[in-house]
Design goal:
The protein has 571 residues and is mainly beta. Helix content is 14%, strand content 42%.
């Protein structure tokens, strides 16, 4: 029987509608599964965690090649990217597609409801021409600043993403100064031969004289009174290097898949963002890169970071909330954050809090992460004048190997230096006398570390508070660290060590100075060690040693001359 042509067309149309329905349903199911994965990471936490929403987009694709983009690595595509984003936004949002190729461009300015998707083989290459980057008001290192616009830039956007298997390269080598002691002699000679300028001391190379003289230009510019338009700073543009990815006051943000590398300053900097999911990304910077942080979360809330890899020149995963008075006035803590299943190969710190934490940091979970050769493993840093409270931090199941300084380090005297001092660094004497306690006094408290393993570190643990504000309520449980030096604790209160094994090659296993209410339960060290516990300082007291065998050390406890005779409480 022959079916009428019109009826056949009707049946075909119905089939298309049905198939489209199932395709749409499939996409929706994928999104639900995606949301469930994020929900799994944010459940069963020791603090209340709001639901973090994953960005979703209309089923629409806008290819940058349809707007004149040329992926030859030489054609500047800034306008083509802008036109593609504009067209996608006007159509109601969707995906701006970057196909395989090298896409040279100035700043890419994101828009709401758009996923910037890089296919495998796609490389967005930021222009090395400084004049392609206008001057903008922004925030850098915790304070208001004028900088060159970031290569990837978005302000007050909602529902945005950067996804795919491609690469974003910030052309950081065009911007960054380099210190001589971070190069071999051959590398240094090659760098100087490439051009640029070297400072009078011969210690630092700059890409240009303008970059080297930038601070002096700014000092003279700001001597006058009244507001200064951003464009007036253009004379110091090469000094005012941008972070590579700047997302400011954005909501519902997804970074999923790409490699972010070679940034002029910090690599990825979400500032005051909410509902932020970062997963499956790779972040790379040369180990010598100045200010080459990986991910800096500043005053953000509702963040999930998982299955990411970092190999960078400064702190890898860093939590911040503004600097000094500016951060305190902003008053937005970094809070409700989960970091899990990440690997850090190099960086000043694997996971870091501070030093710009003046708005506070709280409700952070870090678990199942691996740090390989990071200068510090778990790094907390602040200093007098910051203010701010860091609390309710829960860290568990961390593996570390070959840490050049502290496996676990809390430093409340941070002076801005790298953990491994440069040869031209100048040591600064700090006062151990108590200072007045006010809004400028920082606090580290209620921080819990569990199931930590480290094979090889210079020092196992440093807990260093301030005389006027002890670091307090710190708990280490199920910890095993092999190191050259043991645990050092200065100006601390309410410290609990449970099932902790420290294996130093030299010195006491534990050294406590001006520390109070320290409980050691099932703590052990290497058999035959010279000294187990050394106590110093007239404020030391309330030391409890429970279920701990001191007989395996040649000497169990040594009291300094100023330590009260009753500092150790007998069980």
């Amino acid at each position: 029987m022959k079916i009428p042509i019109r009826f056949s067309a009707f049946i075909a149309a119905c089939i298309i509608v049905i198939v489209s329905f199932f395709l749409t349903e499939g996409a929706g199911s994928s999104a639900v599964t995606d949301q469930d994965e994020v929900q799994a990471y944010t459940s069963n936490l020791p603090f209340p965690m709001p639901n973090v929403q994953v960005a979703r987009f209309p089923d629409r694709i806008v290819n940058i090649t349809n707007f004149g983009a040329v992926g030859d690595g030489h054609t500047l595509n800034t306008d083509a990217f802008a036109r593609a984003f504009q067209a996608c936004a006007q159509a109601g949002g969707g995906r701006v597609l970057v196909p395989a190729g090298i896409w040279l461009t100035g700043p890419v300015q994101l828009k709401s409801n758009i996923d910037l998707h890089l296919e495998r083989g796609a490389l967005i290459l930021s222009s090395p021409r400084f004049e392609d980057y206008p001057m903008v008001r922004t925030t850098y290192e915790g304070s208001r600043s004028v900088r060159a616009m970031s290569p990837i830039y978005g302000v007050k956007l909602e529902n945005i993403a950067i996804t795919g298997e491609g690469i974003i390269d910030g052309s950081g080598d065009a911007w960054r100064p380099v210190k001589k002691n971070k190069m071999t002699d051959a590398q240094w000679r090659k760098l100087i031969a490439s051009g640029g300028a070297v400072d009078r001391q011969g210690n630092t190379w700059y890409p240009s004289v303008e970059a080297m003289n930038g601070p002096e230009f700014i000092r003279k510019l700001e001597q006058g009174s009244g507001p200064i338009p951003p464009e007036k700073y253009a004379g110091a543009r090469q000094h005012l290097r941008p972070v590579m990815v700047s997302l400011i006051e954005c909501k519902k943000v997804l970074l999923d898949g790409p490699t972010f590398q070679n940034s002029p300053a910090w690599n990825i900097h979400p500032l005051m963002c909410e509902d932020l999911v970062i997963r499956n990304i790779t972040v790379l910077n040369p180990w010598y890169s100045q200010n080459g942080d990986g991910l800096d979360l500043e005053s953000c809330r509702g963040v999930v970071v998982y299955k990411c890899s970092f190999d960078v020149g400064d702190d890898a995963i860093c939590i911040k909330s503004g600097k000094d008075e500016a951060g305190r006035k902003r008053g937005r803590p970094c809070e409700n954050i989960v970091i899990a299943d990440c690997v850090v190969y190099h960086g000043h710190g694997g996971f870091t809090v501070g030093s710009e934490m003046s708005g506070g940091v709280r409700n952070i979970s870090v678990r199942r992460c691996t740090f390989l050769g990071t200068d510090v493993g778990l790094r907390f840093k602040t200093t007098r004048g910051r203010g701010g409270v860091v609390e309710k931090i829960y860290i568990s199941d961390i593996r570390m190997k070959d840490i050049p300084t502290d496996a676990i380090g809390f430093n409340m005297y941070y002076g801005g230096e790298a953990p491994i001092p440069d040869s031209d660094s100048k040591s600064v004497l700090v006062s151990r006398a108590p200072a007045p306690v006010d809004e400028k006094t920082p606090r580290f408290q209620s921080i819990f570390l569990k199931n930590i393993v480290c094979t090889g570190a210079e020092r196992a643990v440093l807990l260093e508070g301030l005389p006027e504000m002890a670091i307090r309520d710190i708990e280490l449980e199920n910890v095993l660290i092999s190191s050259r030096k043991g645990l050092e604790c200065i100006d601390a209160d309410q410290i609990r060590l449970k099932n902790v094994r420290i294996l130093p090659r030299t010195g006491p296993v534990l050294s406590l100075e001006d520390s109070r209410n320290v409980t050691m339960e099932k703590v052990s060290g290497p058999e035959g060690v010279e000294l187990f516990v050394k106590l110093e300082g007239e404020r030391t007291g309330g030391i409890r040693i429970l279920e701990t065998d001191l007989s395996k050390a040649k000497k169990g406890i040594e009291l300094g001359k100023n330590v009260p005779a009753d500092a150790v409480i007998k069980p």
